[in-house]
Each structure stands twice: as structure tokens, then as C-alpha cells.
Write a structure and sequence with these properties.
single chain; three-stranded antiparallel beta sheet; mainly alpha; two-stranded antiparallel sheet; Arc Repressor Mutant, subunit A; Fic-like fold; about 450 residues
Length: about 450
């Protein structure tokens, strides 16, 4: 990956500018260019305003940025504070996220009812567990991973173990949502996500013991980032936890919006790289903890890793832009806010698709005197999936986990569908496997004519 060029120093540019040029520099009032918060490495390829060089244009943009910049109680390797500012790009994104993701009043009806909430939550936890692990090298089919998590079977290899661990960690942080984070809990979280996946098992749940960890381009081994010295990690982690817990303290300065605070937790774990492996998974899990603690209930239904995996270069570039521009985290904040909004949009699209498919199933079922008013919401959801994926296999344990019901309830659901001819059943070892037949739609239609 191309390492962004470090921006030129702006004070010499301001000092050496003539009166006319300085006037044009000072006329630049916005930190944005065409609505974008550009890094020097991007700006230098664009034509500057008339009468200015690219360097002078950059100096003009830095002026309003510096005016709104706030220092954070988080520091880089040299001990310099990271900073951020709030251009309109961030304010608009925060407004939309606040409206869409905070509290439960405005949550989509599909996830605001006890009957369906658990099903959508399990889907989301599985999606995030899989894609977060795939970001760090897990290689297994989605079908196999979903089957493992839904059925509760043991992982068969390292990739499945990574996904299983991530799922366990995501469930764990849901129980911590009302509690402050501590260094001990961060270590516990890391132990959860890395259990059984590290070259040295002793590295699970402990800070790295050396400076051998560097971030390199996988294609040509270009050094992209060297994390802080490992001796500093205990102090840096304690500082990060204090920052994470300060969101409830109205006297904390500067005020950091809860969504930005969660993103900055993510950023700092990636920057410090405090562990031998599993830093990304730990960082994203902490992000979800912070969002849940601040009341963003919709976030537990979203998968940010799904979008990070689609464009890993943009994710890494957001880090590099921050590091090469004097610790300005605004680049990373903007990138992650965009990802969150994409995830919210995708959730709504998924809910619309699922609701439409279930309504189609309900209309099909309503035509049958044998089925009308006989199937519960769990069975309707299963039949909806079966109509889209003939040959899909189901186990009692998977149905139980998906809908958060007891084993006997799940067993009764599947046996009733088998008795109606909508599933087939066979014994595999000591467990029954239920399969959606290829002609399930015709079978439903046949029941309608009885």
C-alpha cells in the first residue's frame, strides 16, 4: 500500500506568503473540499484555487481545521496528544446515527417485538463474528460457520475457532453494557477472542511481551506502522480505559460524543496493537461495548466488519492518514461514521427483505385450512427460509438458539412441521436432521387443496 505523504509545515507557508496570497489563504473558511475532509496526499493531486499553489491551498485549509481542533487525553508514540475536529461531515453523520441507532423508540418494528428480536439478534451476532474473523484471516464457508454457531457444535479448525470465539466475545460484552471497562476486562475480552488460535497460547489475555509486532503491507512487506514500545502498554491501556469510562462524566474535557468515543477506542487498540494477535477483533468488540453502554441499542443488530471487509484498504488508509497528519483522528472518525451508516442502511434493507418474504409465506399459508392459524412465528420464519433455500438442514439445537427457546419447544416446532410434510427427518448419529424438501412450495399448495 502507498504510504501517504506527510503534509508540509503550514507556518512557514503562512509566514512567507505575500499580502495578496495571504489574503487568499485566509479567505478559505472551510476545513472541507467539496464536502470531503482531504489529506494532503489527496489534495495535492487536485487543481488549487487561482493564485495559490497546492501547498498554499493546504495551509489555507489547515487554518479552519486548527481553529476547531480539540486535543484528546490519548497520545501517540511520542507522547503527543491525538486530536480531532468536528466538520459538518461529522455533525451530519452523528445526527443521523443518533436518530437511527439510539434508544429503542425508533427501532424497526421487526426488532422491537419480543417474538422476533432474538432471531434477528442471533443473525447479527453470527454475521459480525464471521466477518470480523475473516478480516483477520479466518477461512471457512459461511454455511459451515453459521451451522456451527447455530447448532453449538465445537469448532473443527483454527478458522472456526476464531469465529466461535468472536461469537462468545460478542455475547459477553452484552452482559457488560452497564459496567465500566477495566484493563482486566480488556485482557479477558482478548482471551475470549484468541482462545485456541495463537501460536503461543500464553499470549491469550496478556499484553505483548516484545516489540516484534509491526504492521506491513501483505503484498510487498512495506512497513506501515510500528506500535508503541511494549513497556508502555500497561499505562496506555489504563489511560484508554479511563477515557472509555469518562462518557458519563459531564465535567470531562473535551466533550467527546459517545459515538466518536466508541470509534476512538477502536482506533487506539489498532494503533497501540497491545496484543500479539487478535487486536482487530478486540478493538471491534470494545467498539460494540462502548456503543451499547451509551444506549445505542440498534448497534447490536449491525455488523461493521461486513463493510470493513469489503474495503480493507480504506480502513487501513484511515489509520495512515491520521498517523501522517500529526495525529488528526478526524480521518478515522469520518471513515467509521460512514461504515456505521452503511451498516444501518443494510440492516433496514435486510429487515425489509425478510419482512416481505415472511408476508409472502403468510399469504401462502393463509390459503391452507390445514396450516392457517396453526404455525407459530418461529415455524413461519423457518418455512420462509426453507422456501428460499430448499435442501436447508435444521437441528433442534440450532432452532433453539435462533429463537432463544427451551429444547422441548424447539423440538416440538420441528416435529410438527415434519408431521405436516413440510420437513423431512432422518437420524444422523444420535441427532435428528430436519431437511427442507425441494418441493416444499408444492407441498404447502397441496395442503391448501385438502
Amino acid at each position: 500500500m502507498h504510504i501517504p505523504l506527510t503534509p508540509p509545515e503550514v507556518f512557514p507557508i503562512w509566514s512567507n506568503a505575500g499580502q495578496e496570497v495571504l489574503g487568499k489563504i485566509l479567505d478559505i473558511r472551510s476545513p472541507l473540499v467539496g464536502g470531503d475532509y482531504l489529506h494532503w496526499d489527496q489534495l495535492r493531486h487536485r487543481p488549487p484555487p487561482d493564485g495559490l499553489t497546492s501547498e498554499q491551498w493546504w495551509a489555507g485549509i489547515r487554518f479552519p481545521r486548527n481553529a476547531m481542533m480539540k486535543s484528546l487525553p490519548l497520545v501517540d508514540k511520542a507522547g503527543k496528544s491525538f486530536e480531532f475536529c468536528l466538520p459538518e461531515t461529522i455533525l451530519i453523520a452523528l445526527h443521523h446515527i443518533d436518530k437511527a441507532a439510539s434508544g429503542s423508540i425508533n427501532a424497526p418494528v421487526e426488532i422491537n417485538t419480543p417474538e422476533t428480536r432474538d432471531r434477528y439478534l442471533v443473525h447479527s451476532l453470527i454475521e459480525e463474528a464471521i466477518t470480523s474473523s475473516q478480516l483477520e484471516g479466518a477461512a471457512t464457508t459461511r454455511t459451515a460457520a453459521k451451522s456451527m454457531l447455530r447448532e453449538g457444535r465445537k469448532p473443527r479448525d483454527r478458522s472456526e475457532r476464531m469465529i466461535f470465539n468472536n461469537y462468545q466475545a460478542m455475547e459477553q460484552i452484552r452482559t457488560w453494557r452497564t459496567e465500566p471497562i477495566t484493563p482486566a476486562k480488556v485482557l479477558e475480552l482478548h482471551s475470549l477472542v484468541t482462545d485456541g488460535t495463537l501460536d503461543d497460547p500464553a499470549d491469550a489475555g496478556r499484553l505483548r511481551q516484545d516489540n516484534d509486532i509491526v504492521i506491513q503491507d501483505r503484498r510487498d512487506n512495506t512497513l506501515l506502522h510500528r506500535p508503541p514500545d511494549f513497556h508502555e502498554l500497561p499505562e496506555r491501556l489504563a489511560r484508554l480505559c479511563a477515557f472509555a469510562n469518562a462518557d458519563a462524566d459531564e465535567t470531562a474535557a473535551p466533550f467527546v460524543h459517545p459515538v466518536l468515543r466508541a470509534i476512538l477506542l477502536h482506533f487506539m487498540i489498532g494503533y497501540d496493537h497491545p496484543f500479539a494477535d487478535g487486536n482487530g477483533r478486540t478493538a471491534r468488540a470494545l467498539f460494540y461495548w462502548s456503543m451499547a453502554r451509551s444506549g445505542y441499542g440498534l448497534m447490536e443488530f449491525l455488523s461493521i466488519s461486513h463493510f470493513l471487509r469489503k474495503a480493507p484498504g480504506q480502513y487501513l488508509r484511515a489509520y495512515l492518514h491520521t498517523e501522517t497528519d500529526a495525529g488528526d483522528t478526524t480521518y478515522f472518525l469520518i471513515h467509521q461514521l460512514h461504515v456505521i451508516r452503511l451498516a444501518i442502511k443494510e440492516l433496514h434493507a435486510y429487515l425489509r427483505r425478510t419482512a416481505a418474504a415472511q408476508k409472502d409465506t403468510e399469504r401462502l399459508i393463509a390459503a391452507s385450512n390445514q396450516l392457517q392459524h396453526r404455525l407459530n412465528h418461529r415455524q413461519l420464519a423457518l418455512i420462509t427460509g426453507a422456501l428460499k433455500h430448499s435442501g436447508e438442514q435444521y437441528r433442534i439445537e440450532g432452532h433453539q438458539r435462533t429463537h432463544n427457546v427451551v429444547y422441548q419447544t424447539a423440538r416440538t416446532d420441528l416435529l410438527e412441521l415434519t408431521d405436516l410434510g413440510l420437513l423431512t427427518r432422518e437420524l444422523l448419529g444420535r441427532a435428528y436432521i430436519f431437511t427442507a424438501p425441494a418441493d416444499i412450495q408444492q407441498r404447502i399448495a397441496a395442503l391448501a387443496s385438502v
